[in-house]
Amino acid sequence: MQTFNIHEAKIHLSRxxxxxxxGESFIISKAGKxxxxxxxxxxxxxxxxxxxxxxxxxxxxxxxxFDRMGDQEIERLFxx
Length: 80
Description:
Blueprint: E1 2-5, H1 6-11, H2 13-21, E2 26-30, E3 33-38, H3 71-77
Organism: Rugamonas rubra
Function: Antitoxin component of a type II toxin-antitoxin (TA) system.
InterPro entries: Antitoxin_Phd/YefM, YefM-like_sf
C-alpha cells in the first residue's frame, strides 16, 4: 500500500481516487505520520425506510377499557 503526503495527494487526487475505486487503497500522511486510509466502498449505504404508524392496523385490537385496566389493583397498591 502506497503512502502519499498531503501535498502529493492534493496534486494527484483524481488519479488516486480512481485507483482506490479499483481496489488500490492508499494512505495520506502529514509530516511522515499516517492520518487516513483511502479505500473503495464495498457497497453503497442503504437507508432503511422509516416505520410508519398504523402498520398493525386491523391486526390487533385495544379493549375499550384500556385506560382503566388495573385501576382497582393500582388503588389497592397505593392505598387509595
